[in-house]
Design a protein that fits this description.
The structure holds 2 protein chains of 2 kinds. By secondary structure, chain A is of the alpha+beta class. Chain A has 15 helices and 13 strands. In chain B, 43% of the residues lie in helices and 21% in strands. The chains are: A alpha+beta, B alpha+beta.
Chain lengths: 425, 434
């Protein structure tokens, strides 16, 4: 799918030439160990690099220039996967052939180079006023999690299950760590990102591979960096939870039921495809046991679903229910898992789930971002990625496999967020 | 079948109006393995007072019924339609807006089986009092979920402030009380009135052979019997230009206040190309005044009046239209005063010239070209444009023709203090203090 070239030690370029899209997509993925401090620094750093640079020293000047380039999308994104933090510089530029004027692509590449290599600095550090403003922005982003009750409840569940563990460290860090950042510490984080982070560069679009490769080589002079180390995500230690049920209260109407389970399976585990199917039948789709029995049969919820977090070997069930029906909902959800553990799984359910997984994978490959994300995820496996291989793996999964996999899923914590006790009937 | 070629965009669109009145559009996209299909009726939450099919007196149905009907279409005598779609590996869904109800799927395999499932389940209603009652629990939880979402409450609070009479002010899903009144008979009445093929549009985009697909849809429709179409009579009360309330707020369990200014539009009667020019002109004007390159944005951001949640947006449909500008903010008063001041400045003397227009026009053209990579965008937006007699693929040429005078003239629709309102969500902890 992609042609991969080592540009230098620790720096790989992946290019895909296709006439499928009307735009050219770029992604620079900088990888660093995930800690509260690194996440905080890198979230602010993403904002600061996107604020302005040497050539466009104010934000409106930078933004106007992007407008002139036919609204080229350019942003830096702070995210995490397993025990790594990623800063991703993304750009999407329209292809010159659809415009009456040309030369946009070259200007976009110049701008990418400027954003990374020529930041807006003053006596060898970032400007205090910009750092202060962007720290505030990141703090507000972290605080706003509280207003989204589903995301908040999920974050609380993971914090309770895996405190001080990559699973519960946010991609934007913590308010305390963001607060303690200085212009100097942030500039050091920038240097470290540019000189030490492992870097993968992705480019997708209607382009000439050789021409693009030489353009990248000429414009982006990244130095060699430490040898690539494989990151064994599952080896991070964690404290065990003492309770199996936690109820918390806020002023709200609906009850948010979030249940956490632990499994020995992770993305790199040979049973991963079996777990994908097991999760699909349990609560991954509208044909799943949770959807049919908790939503359709009992009319208890509008949404009830399960999701498998393959980096951490955790599985979650999420549902919004009447605040007074926690026990009944937990019992029904438990029953659906027990049914699977007892082997009550039909061939129809397996076929439907395999068909949905196939569709999802093929569909994801219809967008440039999807192609980049899937390739980036699967490249960590020892084997090379192919759609047909994954289809075969899913097709080989049997009812017995699913029963066995379901038995490996253990409930660890029930978290319930609902209206204040005195308010509930 | 007609073929429409959009040269600059390198897209070929196929169109046919079937004998039953259904409009079918097919857009093949090379390089795609999925096909996205939508089947949409021009019927949404605002269509609450109308003359039922075959009757002469108008009725008003309970709020939230279009959305309720959308949910109930998925349940059939032999089970849930999702089961069928899953069997053919299709991800199916539906949504209800102010003016439309859309049923859709995307699939990379079994295209014809899935298309048949879509056509048949939407054209074979099955409602019983028992299944209607059961759905009330599910939709009740959906409504409660939205009740806890401050951004949704902020959006609807702002619309309620703006509109006195028009049903756009009513939440799309209705309320627990209003949906409790819904019966199977109501659903059949709405279905018969609004789901006639002549009030619907099907859009197929992605990996598809246009001739084969058109034949397939034509045959499917030909086998079914439909009544003679009738013109749908919808009733709307006269809506004044000024807002219903100039200010209102709601306390919720949030960290920071959230505030929107809503500006009600005067001009809501245009259709076709006139509407497209008007709508794009207002969007470009808002971009100039409130966009990320504007003086307003720079000041508001540097002073900390806005954060990353900042939005501005313009909505226009036949009969209603409004702009919204706002953000989560520690300083709602300062922000709203600055927005007002900025609008006043523009009203006193139009400050933008050709260079400004060229810049935002380029940005908007780029936006359309990027969006044409998305089959979901194409199908949903094409349908929305078509229901207002516009063509999505004309947007770029219309933008290229746009003049500064167009911007200035169109923007007058949302100028005037009487059309402005402010709605805020305030933290509960502050209420306790005061």
């Amino acid at each position: 799918m992609f042609q991969s070239i080592d540009l230098n030690q620790g720096i790989r370029l992946h290019i895909r030439s296709t006439d499928q899209f009307k735009t050219i997509n770029f992604a620079f993925k900088f990888k660093h160990e995930l800690t509260n401090q690194s996440a905080s620094e890198r979230a602010v750093l993403s904002n600061v690099l996107l604020h302005s640079n040497e050539l466009f020293p104010s934000n409106p000047a930078f933004r106007s220039h992007l407008d002139e380039l036919y609204g080229t999308i350019m942003y830096l994104d702070s995210s995490k996967k397993g025990s790594d933090h990623y800063i991703t510089l993304l750009a999407e530029s329209v292809n010159d052939q659809y415009l009456s004027t040309g030369g946009v692509l070259d200007q976009v590449m110049d701008l990418l180079q400027t954003v990374l290599f020529r930041p807006n600095v003053e006596s060898d550090t970032f400007k205090d006023s910009i750092v202060k403003r962007e720290k505030d922005s990141v703090i507000q982003r972290i605080e706003s999690l509280y207003d989204d009750k589903t995301r908040y409840a999920q974050q609380r569940l993971v914090e309770l299950m895996r405190p001080n563990h990559p699973a519960s460290i946010g991609a934007n860090g913590t308010i305390e760590d963001v607060t303690s950042i200085t212009s100097e510490s942030l500039f050091a984080a920038y240097k470290s990102m540019m000189e030490e982070d492992e870097l993968d560069i992705y480019i997708v679009g209607d382009l000439n591979v050789e021409e693009m490769t030489s353009k990248i080589k000429n414009a982006f002079s990244f130095k060699a960096r430490g040898a690539k180390q494989k990151n064994p995500h599952q080896d991070v230690e964690h404290q065990s939870v003492e309770k199996d049920k936690v109820n918390e209260y806020q002023d709200m109407k609906q009850g948010k039921l979030h249940i956490g389970y632990v499994t020995p399976v992770t993305f790199t585990h040979p049973d991963f495809p079996k777990m994908q199917i097991t999760n699909g039948i349990f609560g991954g789709y509208p044909h799943s046991k949770l959807f049919l029995n908790v939503r359709e049969k009992e009319s208890m919820a509008y949404y009830v679903s399960s999701s498998f977090s393959s980096s951490y070997g955790l599985l979650f069930v999420l549902s919004g229910i009447d605040a007074g029906k926690q026990e009944k909902a937990v019992r029904l959800i438990d029953e659906q898992l027990e049914i699977m553990q007892n082997g009550d799984i039909s061939q129809n359910e397996i076929d439907q789930t395999v068909a949905m997984l196939k569709n999802q994978l093929k569909e994801a490959l219809d967008s440039a971002r999807g192609q980049i994300e899937i390739y980036d995820q699967y490249k960590d496996l020892d084997e090379s990625f192919s759609v047909e291989d994954w289809f075969k793996k899913w097709e080989a999964v049997t009812k017995e496999d699913i029963q066995k996999t379901a038995k490996s899923i253990e409930k660890e914590l029930v978290y319930f967020l609902s209206g204040k006790e005195e308010l509930s009937k | 079948m007609k073929e429409l070629h959009f040269k600059q965009l390198d897209e070929k669109l196929y169109h046919e109006k079937l004998e039953n009145g259904l409009e079918v559009y097919i857009l093949p996209k090379k390089g795609f393995s999925k096909t996205f299909v939508t089947f949409t009726t021009k019927y949404g939450s605002i269509d609450r007072t109308f003359v039922p099919f075959g009757e002469s007196a108008e009725v008003t149905v309970p709020d939230g019924i279009a959305h309720f009907l959308e949910h109930k279409m998925f349940e059939k005598e032999d089970g849930d339609v999702f089961q069928k779609f899953s069997g053919f590996g299709a991800a199916a869904n539906a949504f209800t807006s102010f003016t439309r109800t859309a049923y859709l799927f995307s699939a990379t395999d079994h295209l014809y089986e899935n298309t048949e499932t879509l056509l048949n389940f939407v054209q074979e209603p099955y409602f019983t009092q028992e299944t209607v009652e059961k759905e009330k629990g599910i939709i009740g939880q959906e409504i409660t979920m939205y009740d806890d979402q401050p951004d949704w409450r902020l959006y609807f609070g702002t619309i309620e402030n703006m509109y006195k009479e028009h049903p756009v002010k009513i939440d799309i899903a209705g309320t627990i009380e209003s949906i409790d009144q819904i019966t199977a008979e109501h659903l059949y009445t709405c279905y018969e009135t609004f789901y006639h093929p002549s009030n619907m549009l099907m859009f197929v985009v992605g990996a598809v052979n246009p001739e084969e697909m058109m034949n397939y849809i034509r045959e499917n429709q030909h086998k079914k019997e439909f009544k003679e179409p009738k013109t749908i009579e919808r009733k709307f009360e006269q809506e004044p230009v000024e807002v219903a309330k100039t200010e209102n707020s709601l306390y919720m369990d949030v960290q920071k206040p959230k505030v929107y200014m809503g500006i009600k539009a005067k001009e809501t009667s245009l259709q076709g190309e006139e509407m497209m020019i008007h709508e794009l002109a207002i969007q470009l004007s808002l971009e100039l005044i409130f966009g990320r390159s504007s003086d307003f944005y720079v000041e508001a951001y540097e002073k900390g009046w806005i954060d990353e949640s900042y939005v501005f947006d313009y909505t226009l449909e036949k009969g209603f239209g409004f702009a919204i500008i706002g953000s989560d903010t520690g300083m709602p008063k300062e922000l709203m005063e600055a927005v007002k001041k900025e609008l006043q400045k523009v009203e006193e003397k139009w400050p933008y010239g050709q260079d400004d227009l060229d810049r935002v026009r380029k940005k908007k053209i780029g936006y359309f070209l990027r969006a044409l990579n998305s089959v979901e965008f194409i199908a949903n937006q094409f349908t929305r444009y078509a229901f207002n007699d516009m063509n999505l693929f004309e947007a770029v040429p219309v933008l290229e023709k746009m003049t500064v005078a167009d911007l200035q003239q169109s923007f007058a629709s949302i100028q005037g203090e009487k059309q402005q309102t402010v709605f805020s969500i305030l933290p509960k902890k502050d209420q306790a203090k005061s």
